[in-house]
Amino acid sequence: MIEKNYQPADIESRMSRIWEESGAFMAGRPERKDAAPFTIVIPPPNVTGSLHMGHALNNTLQDILCRFERMRGRDVLWQPGTDHAGIATQMVVERQLMERQEPGRRDLGRAKFLERVWQWKAESGGTIVNQLKRLGASCDWSRERFTMDEGLSRAVVKVFVELHREGLIYKDKRLVNWDPKLLTAISDLEVQQVEVKGSLWYLRYPISGKTFSPDDPSTFVVVATTRPETMLGDTAVAIHPDNERIGHLIGQHVILPLVGRRIPIVGDDYADPEKGSGAVKITPAHDFNDFEVGKRHGLPQINVFDREGCLALVDNEDYLRGLPEGALMLAEELHNADRFAARKKIVARLEDFGFLEKIEPNTHMVPHGDRSNVVIEPYLTDQWYVDAKTMAQPAIAAVRSGATSFVPKNWEKTYFEWMENIQPWCISRQLWWGHQIPAWYGPDGKVFVAETEEEAVGNALGYYVEQEVITEEQGRAMAEDSAKREGFITRDEDVLDTWFSSGLWPFSTLGWPDDTAEVKRYYPTNVLVTGWDIIFFWVARMMMMGLHFMKDAPFSTVYIHRLVRDEKGAKMSKSKGNVIDPLGVIDDFGADALRFALARGAALNHDIKLSPQLVEINRNFATKLWNACRFAEMNGCDKPDGFEPTAAKETLNRWIAHETSRATREVTEAIEAYRFNDAANAMYRFVLNIYCDWYVELAKPLLMGEEGAAKAETRAMIAWARDEILKLLHPFMPFITEELWAVTAKRDGLLVLAEWPRKASAVSEEQIASMAMAGPGDPLIAPVMAALDAGDFSDPAAEAEIGWVVDLITAIRSLKSEMNIPPATLISLVLSAASAETKDRAGRWSDIVKRLARLSDISFADRPPEGAVQLLVRGEVVALPLKGVIDLSAEKTRLDKEIVKADADIKRVDAKLGNEKFVANAPEEIVEEEKEKREAAVARKAKLQEALERLKLAS
């Protein structure tokens, strides 16, 4: 029996337990061995993570697809797992050691520290998995993987070794995003651009061969920079070749201020003639654009910083090379100075010598580490790289050919733009937690890459014996005793970027590199659901790795969702204080309400605006469904065995069969097209408006009437439609639907494994029999075949009748609202020049229409009476005599005033949106909010004008 009150917390914990104990989510169920597989791999959340609203959206959408396809009979594998999250996890454990006043990472040593990380992972690393279960994620949890599982680690090593063997992994000295606090290279995804109010320094670089004078512009070139401390590493000044003002200086040299080094003036398109002075300083070791300019012109790369962002000038061979005699004093004075402290000293010194022309305020974006919050330094260092350009070509071709497609399709353009301009992928990180790079170095720095240490050592010792660096006897001794090769052959200390291992996720989780049955059955996967922000970092990596090693794209569809924002459209952030905690929302309103709110907002190419109030609305929807099912139970509504809804006799019951069939079609087609919001909103309208507000309400007289065929049929139809609702709603709101499915009747099995609603056939047995007897070309065949193909039950006559009742009552209620008439006020209704069909309907439904529309009477007339407001309902005029009910003149005055107010609102917004400065500078969410205000005002004005026109006709 259904409890009186809907309590989501009780239901959700119980249902989670039932699903898990029954193995409902397991792939490879015996009864589905011949079913088509459907595979999704979860974007593995960081093992350090906690559920945020982005996770909630992403996993809700995946779960909708998985539950939908599972109910359609597919063998569904939703592969779960977590990512080891190199930096994040290492930071968590280091912070823990510090808080407990225990020895730090360096004091512990690598082996002991990694033991502590694994210990932490075992104790608290699965938090987010339990939170995903609270959300209702129907993953096959028995197959949960971790990116540093033994099997996945083996896959990582194999991929690294094979790519290195093919020349697609190599070591190079290039610029990276360097975090001076964490002391490692980081990916672009881990860099946040922060707007900073800084300065733009204009510096005078003396032209070589001229006597420098601050008062004579012909003796120097002015360059502008936001980072004067990097000027110590300048190796050129660049000017655009077409710069008419100073282009003649190309080919000459300048003397680097304070340093005294002579550096060339080069011609390069990178220098914008319209920006600043038209000349730019080139520091190849400290700026990504300058690095490329330096490569084009063969410029030296002088790194003036150490790993901690301090100046490193003494003993810096690159810096000291080419210095004039007596120029060492500056190097000694600034050596080991922090970069920002050095900036102040350098600017002061430049000013002292007349090299500083001016300083301007300058607001600009500065890269910061998302975890360390320090300014990121472009840093020249030796790292391991993947030849991403070569590996990207098959990945580009797969999308161009349609083997993999993006939804929405416009994201393909973003994908192509990035893939076609892809840079070498830096895959090494200066951390301890992660997959250690399988590379060993000999005494001369020669690299030996292998899948195992034994293999690497064997290759290395064989090589050095052959080169006569060591004797055969020494080689044998080293091979047998690791202590004897200590310091001779050492392993690379770096670990791999976490995107490297997660790039293998679609096949490494299935057991590759072993030739497993799971790889054969579930690869390639069907769809990847992910956010737009990791198209480059994860989607692209998986495409490259999957095509290279599996010879097939890892998924056929990539569904890209947008961000979840607050109710005003602002991006959620802790600093703004507008973060909505999904777990708190689940505690307050239930997981189903949160899921349904997210699904209803998940429109293609649109961010989702969310507030606790919006979730509460969907909690109220769940309560309405609960109460409707309870009403059905209290009225003895049950579906007899063999009940066929399309055989119903009562018009009302045929109408709900018609509407249910339409809802089934709408929801099915919308999910298939990844239009989650359309599917969810179709269910919202169907359950709330069609089933609860109209069908159940219109069925009450039958339920309260005498026992008989009509009452029995209505009870059965209410139960049948309820069951179809529970099925259609299950992917969106799994907990409440599973509970109601269990308690509304005795059933064999769970709703999660029930069959998805099939479209009820619109073709009778008589039609099929007559078609079989028809000859070729008989006109009877075409419509019957069309109905069979569509598979929809349709009853236009029932829809016309009940639809008329619904539209009539709705129109009257809306009019009362427009005219400020209290809903309970009884008014008359006149059907003007009504057709015979309408008269018949009015007779059949008179009592219900009068009760629900609050009418005193219904009458007929050839024309609308004087002083009546006219409405058009399904092509026929209905009139409501309002003289004496309202003051028509006063109502017209009120509506005129409301229209003037709406006009003012529209003009006020138009003034803002017409202001280019406002549109350019206002936050995106503010601009969107103004557009929404305008749309609301325009809609309000249209309704007011419509009401005013009705009043004018009534006068």
Notes on the structure:
It holds the Pfam family tRNA-synt_1. A motif ('KMSKS' region) lies at residues 571-575. The protein is an alpha/beta fold. It is built from 33 helices and 29 strands. Helix 14 (453-466) packs antiparallel against helix 15. The chain is globular, with a radius of gyration of 36 Å. The two termini are 57 Å apart.
Q: Could you give a short description of this structure?
A:
This protein has 955 residues and is α/β, with parallel strands linked by helices.
Question: Key features?
Answer:
single chain, 955 residues, alpha/beta, Isoleucyl-tRNA Synthetase, domain 2, hypothetical protein PF0899 fold, four-stranded antiparallel beta sheet, four-stranded mixed beta sheet, 33 helices, tRNA-bd_arm, cytoplasm, coiled coil, protein biosynthesis, aminoacyl-tRNA deacylase activity
Average pLDDT number? 91
Strand content: 15-25%
Overall shape? globular
* Count of discrete alpha- or pi-helical segments spanning 4 or more residues: 33
Q: What is the CATH fold-level name of the domain at 198-360?
A: Isoleucyl-tRNA Synthetase, domain 2
CATH class of the domain at 198-360: Alpha Beta
Our Rg estimate from Cα atoms comes to 36 Å
What would you say the CATH architecture of the domain at 198-360 is?
A: Alpha-Beta Complex
Give a count of the beta strands, DSSP E runs of length 2 or more: 29
Judged by helices, strands and strand pairing, the structural class is alpha/beta
CATH superfamily of the domain at 198-360: Valyl/Leucyl/Isoleucyl-tRNA synthetase, editing domain
Largest sheet: 4 strands, antiparallel
Terminal-residue CA separation: 57 Å
What is the topology, as strand order, of the major beta sheet? Answer: 6-5-14-16
Unreliable residue stretches: 760-765, 771-776
Estimate the helix proportion, in percent: 40-55%
